[in-house]
């Protein structure tokens, strides 16, 4: 859960140009396919068109549990009146429409994957996300609580300031401490105020759409009340626990990051690991996933940590400028000679640049070691829509880590993967085999970089006779650890058809050679030798044409050969699945063991089982 306030928008973004994007033909095709052929469908649109949230209407007799708006609704006469019922229904649809709109505004990336969820769990997850986003906005705002007295800030936040303000004015003299105390009070009371008081809202906190979310929170609360009681209990429980964790870190000075890896992991657990737990419980509560999934607390926690650590790594400069950084001192202090986390920001010397890259690579390695647990969690899912909801952010994260690995742009801005890459990943993350292919590809790329860096460092050490790690460039152990993490991922996601993999590699080499030869021939075409004045232009043309031709040939070669490889894998998986059906056993780690089903089929199966 990342913010759109503070330093957001003030830090430059590093992304590939349109020209570079167009050279990746397979990604352009993927974008076209996602837009026009097989987009992520929004099941929320159906709910809005129906004009009724059936789950909320069916209810369970506990729609106003926890101090909701039962008094207001109780004023209507028994049996209601058709007109009153219609007004309530219309109001509910307006509130749902607001939630849908604000979801897109505060998170375009999560909005699409949330909307494609089955309607039975979609609204629950959407409200869960918006509630936590509202809480996150309070935590992230660095100015709202800096008021003249703690009492003013606490009253504005809807918290009970009696006693606390007096203690603050007597014992605390700094404005920052007073503001932090007000923020802690607002966080700790959030689950009691925002989720039980239908009129609760917070004016002036946050920026842009996050501020609008808090100022119109009663509309979210209205939909929250319509959820099943178990969903409300889950959301309230996770919200309270997350708020307690956030409050713990509000009082810490994070200008130089977290103190050590334990604290780093603890923060990530509170703001992301708990989200994974809550989602698992919501999935199980809906009946779409096995009850055992809710017991996989370690795996769901690691799923959240992987996403959060990726964001923290990528957003180094943004967070540092904002005064709340999270890179653990236990790691970065090994590479910063002056003991300052800002040593890596906008480096002006080669030494600072190399030190920052070594630190970055170690942090990425730390995140990569979470991948086995993430893949294990995904292997336990049975609903295809829930699988895609969980898998798409994970494949985006591994792609982001690969883009950030040993990338100096991390220290001068925010690194972004290409939009075409995102489209390609979304189209591919449809099942466990597709996810394995993605992780396999990016793990190979990271390992290739790490092995190259290790060779360079060994060569440099041999030439200079210096000890490994001198000059802030990182040590060989760090790269060994990276390579080992990647090998583990490669083993877990190994290609079933090695011949297909070899064919792909050979085809890409041939495509590259053909493209280069064609480009040179095109540049030299015309028969006569070039004049002296044309020499520079000819050289430039040759370089440009070679690059374009090679990229196009590689893209097409990769796409079409990759398609054949995928077909072979799918055929192999189907054969394995048939064999397991006959034998009744098989390798539990095999991706073919997991059979993803649409939510509709899962519910039909459950109904048949109940009738039997």
From TrEMBL:
InterPro entries: Isoprenoid_synthase_dom_sf (IPR008949), Squ/phyt_synthse (IPR002060), Squal_synth-like (IPR006449), Squalene/phytoene_synthase_CS (IPR019845), Trans_IPPS_euk-type (IPR044844), Trans_IPPS_HH (IPR033904). It holds the Pfam family SQS_PSY. The keyword Transmembrane helix applies. The keyword Ribosomal protein does not apply. SUPFAM superfamilies: Terpenoid synthases. Its cofactor is Mg(2+). Gene3D superfamilies: Farnesyl Diphosphate Synthase. Residues 51-90, 570-592 are annotated as: Disordered. GO terms for molecular function: squalene synthase [NAD(P)H] activity. Keywords: Membrane, Transferase, Transmembrane, Transmembrane helix. The chain crosses the membrane at residues 504-523, 543-562. CDD domains: Trans_IPPS_HH (cd00683). Its EC number is 2.5.1.21. Belongs to the phytoene/squalene synthase family. This is squalene synthase.
């Amino acid at each position: 859960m990342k913010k759109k306030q503070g330093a957001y928008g003030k830090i430059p973004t590093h992304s590939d140009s349109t020209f570079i994007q167009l050279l990746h033909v397979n990604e352009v095709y993927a974008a076209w396919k996602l837009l026009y052929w097989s987009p992520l469908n929004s099941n929320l649109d159906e709910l809005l068109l129906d004009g009724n949230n059936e789950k909320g209407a069916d209810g369970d007799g506990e729609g106003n549990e926890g101090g909701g708006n039962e008094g207001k609704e109780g004023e209507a006469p028994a049996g209601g009146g058709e007109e009153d019922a219609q007004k309530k229904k219309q109001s509910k649809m307006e509130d749902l429409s607001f939630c849908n709109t604000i979801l897109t505004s505060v998170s375009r990336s999560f909005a699409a994957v949330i909307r494609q969820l089955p309607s039975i769990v979609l609204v629950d997850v959407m409200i869960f996300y918006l509630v936590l986003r509202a809480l996150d906005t309070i935590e992230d705002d660095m100015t709202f609580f800096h008021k003249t007295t703690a009492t003013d800030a606490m009253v504005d936040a809807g918290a009970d300031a009696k006693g606390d303000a007096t203690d603050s004015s007597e014992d605390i003299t700094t404005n920052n401490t007073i503001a932090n105390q007000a923020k802690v009070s607002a966080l700790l009371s959030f689950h009691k105020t925002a989720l039980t008081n239908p009129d609760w809202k917070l004016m002036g906190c946050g920026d842009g759409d996050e501020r609008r979310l808090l100022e119109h929170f009663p509309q979210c609360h209205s939909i929250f009340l319509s959820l099943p009681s178990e969903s409300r209990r889950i959301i309230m429980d996770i919200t309270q626990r997350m708020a307690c964790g956030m409050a713990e870190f509000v009082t810490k000075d994070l200008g130089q990051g977290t103190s050590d890896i334990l604290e780093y992991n603890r923060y990530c657990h509170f703001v992301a690991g708990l989200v994974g737990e809550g989602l698992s419980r919501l999935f199980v509560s809906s009946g779409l996933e096995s009850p055992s999934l809710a017991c996989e607390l370690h795996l769901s926690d690691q799923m959240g940590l992987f996403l959060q650590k990726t964001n923290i790594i990528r957003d180094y400069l943004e967070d540092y400028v904002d005064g709340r950084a999270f890179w653990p001192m236990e790691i970065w202090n090994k590479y910063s000679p002056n003991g300052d986390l800002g040593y890596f920001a906008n480096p002006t010397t080669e030494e600072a640049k190399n030190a920052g890259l070594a630190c970055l690579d170690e942090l990425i390695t730390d995140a990569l070691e979470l991948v086995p647990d993430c893949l294990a969690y995904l292997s336990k899912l049975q609903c295809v829509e829930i699988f895609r909801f969980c898998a798409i952010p994970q494949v985006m994260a591994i792609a982001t880590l690969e883009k950030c690995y040993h990338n100096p742009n991390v220290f001068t801005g925010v690194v972004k993967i290409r939009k075409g890459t995102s489209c390609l990943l979304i189209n591919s993350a449809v099942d466990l085999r597709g996810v394995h292919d993605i992780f396999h590809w990016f793990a190979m790329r990271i390992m290739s970089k790490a092995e190259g860096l290790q060779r360079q460092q060994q060569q440099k050490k041999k030439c200079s006779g210096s000890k490994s790690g001198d000059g802030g460039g990182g040590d060989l152990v760090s790269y060994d650890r990276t390579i080992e993490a990647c090998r583990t991922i490669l083993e877990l996601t190994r290609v079933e058809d090695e011949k297909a993999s070899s064919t792909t590699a050979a085809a890409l080499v041939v495509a590259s050679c053909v493209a280069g030869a064609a480009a040179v021939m095109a540049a030299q075409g015309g028969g006569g030798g070039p004049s002296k004045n044309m020499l520079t232009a000819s050289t430039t043309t040759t370089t440009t044409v070679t690059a374009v031709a090679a990229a196009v040939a590689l893209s097409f070669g990769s796409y079409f050969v990759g398609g054949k490889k995928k077909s072979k894998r799918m055929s192999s998986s189907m054969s394995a699945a048939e064999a397991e059906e006959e034998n009744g056993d098989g390798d539990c780690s095999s991706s073919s063991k997991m059979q993803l089903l649409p939510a509709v089929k899962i519910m039909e199966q459950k109904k048949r089982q109940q009738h039997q």
